[in-house]
Structures are given as structure tokens and as C-alpha cells.
TrEMBL record:
UniProt subcellular location: Cell membrane
The Mechanosensitive ion channel MscS C-terminal domain, residue ranges: 265-347
Alphabetical list of Pfam families matching this protein: MS_channel_1st (PF21088), MS_channel_2nd (PF00924), MS_channel_3rd (PF21082)
Protein name (database record): Mechanosensitive ion channel protein
Sequence similarity: Belongs to the MscS (TC 1.A.23) family.
Gene3D superfamilies to which the protein is assigned, alphabetical: 1.10.287.1260, 2.30.30.60, 3.30.70.100
Every Mechanosensitive ion channel transmembrane helices 2/3 domain range: 142-183
Membrane topology: Multi-pass membrane protein
Native organism: Croceicoccus mobilis
Length: 379
């Protein structure tokens, strides 16, 4: 009994010792687990800013959607896009990469192509399905052009996923730029639209213009642009006059309500000729010109009694001033020259009467001249 009692006591002691060791080992493992958990939390906390930065620095929304769509179609293209997208930088909350820049360039090219083709198609449809006057057609074409380009730009912004509210910051600065820097540009744009709507000046009209030296000439309006009106003179000089100038300044339009233009040809005849015959010949010369209209008929007015001639003015009407007025005047004068030569009508030149007063020196000069003449005749 004593042996078994000792053995039981030893066994109990061994079990207690083992239990204590097991508990100590469990405590050590728990402490180690707590250390690992703390380290994991530290790593997680350190990784959170990086992940947050990577999440915040997202590419443009439209670029990301396009990348995902292409990646679903082809794995090879997805890898290329991934490599291109890895090369870039973060600007604020947006990431700009090589792929982003390439896609923006492609969208801009697409907007340009779409705008050009859309404008041509819109103009073709307008000419085919409408019967507008040239002025109304030009105005409609300009409005269609602005509309097509506006749609193309908005489509491009939508494709790229640009948030327009982000541009609200620049609206104030843009408004100031329009108010100061682009005031004339927008003024000319609005003036051009008003001119086309008002039809006071339209392509094909003949208006009087003045060059930089102040010399006035006339020219035909070739086109009315967004900024300026193109006017071509008979010398093939092209003047670009801002639309705003034509709105605010006085304009002499030769063909606003009627294309008939009256021109004047001045002629002087001698006091010794038959002025009634001369007047008939002037009318005949004017009527012989092909460009002179029969109605209203040419007329001849006696203008004044000049120093050396009786001055007349031939009034004749033409309907095509864009073809020139100087050539009509030349044709009338050449025909009149032949008629005057045939009928003996004299075209005078300036004449002056000189009165010489006698004095001693003048008498000496006359005597010297007379003596020289006698000497030459004696030789």
C-alpha cells in the first residue's frame, strides 16, 4: 500500500508539472499570436495610405471604361494598355499616364474628323432639301457649323468622362477673358449674324470702300465670314473689313434695293461749235455702249461755262457695276472722239491772253530782237 501511494503521489506531481508547463506554453503562444496580430495591424495601417492614394489617383472615368472594354476583347491589348498606363504621374486626384495621353489625342482627332464630315454633310443636306436665298443659306450654314462643332465637342467630353463641374472654377476667368480679350471677336461674330439676318449687306453687293490712304474705291462682297467681310475690287485687291465696322459705320451700298447705278462722263467743247449738235453726238456715243441701259435712257446736261470750254455731263445707267465703271466711261469717250472728228466739233485746250505793257527796258528788248533778225536776214 505504501508503494502504490508513493506511485500515485509521483504520478499526480508529474501531471501537475506537465499541466503547468502546458499552460506556460499556451501563454507564450498566445503572446506570440498577439505580437503577430499587432504586427499585421501595423502593416495594414501602413498599407492603407498607399492603397488610398492608389485609389484616389484614379484615371479619367472615360479612359478607365475604354481600357476595361478593350481588355475584355483582347488580352494582348490589355497587357499593352497596362504597360502604357504604368508610365505616368498623379496630378491631384487624377492620374495621367501615357495611355491617357494617347487616348486623348485619338479622341481629339476623332472630334476633328467628325466635325469636318458633319459640317459637309449638313451643308449638303441643307442645299438639297431647302430652297433658301443665298443670304439665308449662308446664315443657315454658319448656324449648322456652330451646332455640329458644339455637338462634336460635347461628345468628346462625354467619351473622356470629364466632369464639367470641375471646370466651374475657371468660369470666372473665362468670362473675364471674353470680356476683355475676346470682346472684338465675339462682337464681330454677332455682327456677322445680324448682317446676314438683316440682309442689308449680302454676298454679291457692290459697296464703296476706302483704303488706308483714304482713297475711295468700290468692290463686290465675295463672302461674309465669322470675323470679317471679304470685298474684292476691280484691281483684284481683297479687303477684309471687320463685321463690327460695317455695323457701326456708314456704308455706301450700290446694290441694296436696286442694281442700277448712274455714272457721269464730263465733256468740254469749244465756244465756237454747235452745242446742240454736240449734245446729240454725246447721246449717240452713250447709247452705242452695250452696257449702258436703254431704260432709264442716257441724258446730257450742260454743266457750266468754263474758262476755255462749254462743259457737259453725260449721265448713263448701268446694271453691272461689279464689272467696272471706268471701262464704260472709256468706251463712251472713244466713241465720242470719233463722232466729234467726223462732224467737226472742236475739243478745246486751255487758252490764255497775254497783255504786255510798254516800258523802256521792253522797248530795248524789242529793238535788240529786231536788230538780230535783220542781221540774220542780211547774211
Amino acid at each position: 500500500m505504501g508503494f502504490w501511494s508513493a506511485l500515485a503521489a509521483a504520478t499526480t506531481e508529474v501531471q501537475e508539472t506537465a499541466s503547468q508547463q502546458t499552460a506556460a506554453a499556451a501563454d507564450s503562444a498566445s503572446q506570440a499570436a498577439d505580437s503577430v496580430s499587432q504586427a499585421a495591424e501595423s502593416v495594414t495601417q501602413a498599407a492603407d495610405p498607399v492603397a488610398s492614394a492608389a485609389t484616389d489617383a484614379a484615371p479619367l472615368e472615360g479612359v478607365e471604361k475604354i481600357s476595361e472594354a478593350i481588355g475584355q476583347k483582347s488580352l494582348t491589348l490589355a497587357e499593352i494598355i497596362s504597360q502604357l498606363d504604368s508610365i505616368g504621374l498623379n496630378v491631384g486626384d487624377t492620374r495621367f499616364s501615357l495611355w491617357t495621353a494617347l487616348l486623348v489625342v485619338m479622341v481629339l482627332v476623332g472630334i476633328y474628323v467628325f466635325g469636318r464630315l458633319g459640317v459637309r454633310l449638313a451643308h449638303a443636306l441643307l442645299k438639297r432639301f431647302t430652297r433658301l436665298s443665298p443670304t439665308q443659306s449662308l446664315l443657315a450654314e454658319k448656324l449648322l457649323t456652330l451646332s455640329v462643332w458644339a455637338i462634336a465637342i460635347l461628345v468628346g467630353i462625354d467619351i473622356l468622362g470629364i466632369d464639367l463641374t470641375a471646370l466651374a472654377v475657371f468660369s470666372g476667368a473665362f468670362g473675364l477673358a471674353i470680356g476683355f480679350g475676346l470682346q472684338k471677336t465675339f462682337g464681330n461674330l454677332i455682327s456677322g449674324i445680324i448682317l446676314l439676318m438683316d440682309r442689308s449687306i449680302k454676298p454679291g453687293d457692290v459697296i464703296a470702300v476706302a483704303d488706308a490712304a483714304g482713297n475711295q474705291t468700290f468692290g463686290q462682297i465675295r463672302r461674309i465670314g465669322i470675323r470679317a467681310v471679304s470685298i474684292v475690287t476691280r484691281d483684284e485687291k481683297e479687303y477684309l473689313i471687320p463685321n463690327e465696322n460695317l455695323m457701326t459705320n456708314q456704308v455706301e451700298n450700290w446694290s441694296y434695293s436696286s442694281r442700277n447705278v448712274r455714272m457721269q462722263v464730263t465733256v468740254g467743247v469749244s465756244y465756237n461749235c454747235d452745242i446742240k449738235l454736240a449734245e446729240e453726238l454725246m447721246l449717240e456715243a452713250a447709247k452705242s455702249c452695250k452696257r449702258v441701259l436703254e431704260l432709264p435712257p442716257p441724258t446730257v446736261w450742260l454743266n457750266e461755262y468754263g474758262d476755255s470750254s462749254v462743259n457737259f455731263t453725260i449721265h448713263c445707267w448701268i446694271r453691272d457695276p461689279e464689272n467696272g465703271v471706268g471701262n464704260v466711261k472709256s468706251e463712251v469717250l472713244k466713241k465720242l472722239w470719233d463722232l466729234f472728228q467726223e462732224r467737226g466739233i472742236e475739243i478745246p485746250f486751255p487758252q490764255r491772253d497775254i497783255n504786255l505793257r510798254g516800258n523802256e527796258k521792253f522797248d530795248q528788248l524789242v529793238a535788240a530782237i529786231a536788230q538780230r533778225v535783220e542781221n540774220k536776214s542780211g547774211e
